[in-house]
C-alpha cells in the first residue's frame, strides 16, 4: 500500500522559524503573532511574555477556535491564570510550550483539520 500525505494548500502552516522570525507558507513574519488555519494576526501581545494581559487572550478567544497552542519563546513559561481567564471562561482548550514545540504541534493539529490557533511569542532581542 502506498500512503501519500494530503495537505490542503490553503492551510496556514509553519514552514520555518528562527530566534527572530517565523515562516508561514514560506512568507517571513517578524514579531509576535497568532496564526490559525485561515488567518494570521500580526502585532499580537507586542509587549512580549512579561507584559501579557487578559486582553491579549480575549483577542485569541475571539477567533473562535477550540484549541490554542501558546508558544512562549525558547523556554516554556506559564502565564498567570488571571491572564488566561478569557480562554478559561470560554472553555477553550490551551497548551503552553516552547516556541519550537508550539510550531510543530500547531502544524500537526492544523493538518488534521482541527480548529486550532497558535499564539506565538518571541524572546526579546
Mean pLDDT: 93
Strand-and-helix sequence, N→C? EEEEEHEHEHE
How are the strands of the biggest sheet laid out side by side?
5-4-8-6-7
What's the shape? globular
For the secondary structure, the number of strands is 8
Low-confidence stretches: none
Major beta sheet summary: 5 strands, mixed
Number of helices: 3
Sheet-strand content, in percent, reads 25-35%
What features would you describe in this structure?
The chain has three helices and eight strands. With 125 residues, it is of the alpha/beta class. α2 links the parallel β6 and β7 (93-97). The longest helix has 13 residues, at 99-111. It is globular. The protein starts with 13 loop residues before the first strand and ends in a 5-residue tail after the last strand.
Task: Put the structure in a nutshell.
By secondary structure, this protein is of the alpha/beta class.
Descriptors:
125 residues, alpha/beta, 5-stranded mixed sheet, 3-stranded antiparallel sheet, 24% helix
Structural topology:
Layout: E1 14-18, E2 21-24, E3 27-29, E4 33-36, E5 40-42, H1 54-61, E6 67-71, H2 81-89, E7 93-97, H3 99-111, E8 116-120
Helix pairs in contact: 1-2
Amino acid at each position: 500500500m502506498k500512503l501519500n500525505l494530503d495537505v490542503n494548500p490553503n492551510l496556514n502552516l509553519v514552514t520555518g522559524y528562527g530566534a527572530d522570525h517565523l515562516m508561514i507558507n514560506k512568507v517571513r513574519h517578524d514579531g509576535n503573532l497568532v496564526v490559525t488555519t485561515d488567518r494570521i494576526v500580526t502585532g499580537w501581545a507586542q509587549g512580549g511574555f512579561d507584559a501579557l494581559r487578559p486582553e491579549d487572550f480575549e483577542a485569541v478567544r475571539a477567533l473562535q477556535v477550540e484549541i490554542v497552542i501558546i508558544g512562549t519563546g525558547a523556554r516554556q513559561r506559564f502565564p498567570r491564570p488571571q491572564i488566561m481567564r478569557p480562554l478559561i471562561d470560554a472553555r477553550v482548550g490551551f497548551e503552553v510550550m516552547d516556541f519550537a514545540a508550539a510550531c510543530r504541534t500547531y502544524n500537526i493539529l492544523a493538518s488534521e483539520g482541527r480548529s486550532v490557533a497558535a499564539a506565538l511569542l518571541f524572546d526579546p532581542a
